[in-house]
Design goal:
Blueprint (H helix, E strand, L loop, with lengths): L2 E3 L5 E2 L17 E3 L3 H7 L1
Antiparallel strand pairs: 1-2, 1-3
The structure holds zinc ion (ZN).
Length: about 45
């Protein structure tokens, strides 16, 4: 399941098990793409 970086908003598809962080900016807070967060953006 793809993840979205909460900092830069980029999609991370190849998320490694040991390193749960954004490969672009290094931010460690990621959200699953399919979550309630998407609904908030939609509205
Ligand atoms: Zn990022």
């Amino acid at each position: 399941m793809p993840y979205i970086c909460m900092y830069c908003g980029k999609e991370i598809k190849n998320l490694e098990r040991s390193t749960v962080r954004c490969p672009y900016c290094g931010y460690r807070v990621l959200a699953k793409k399919r979550s309630s967060l998407a609904k908030e953006v939609k509205s």
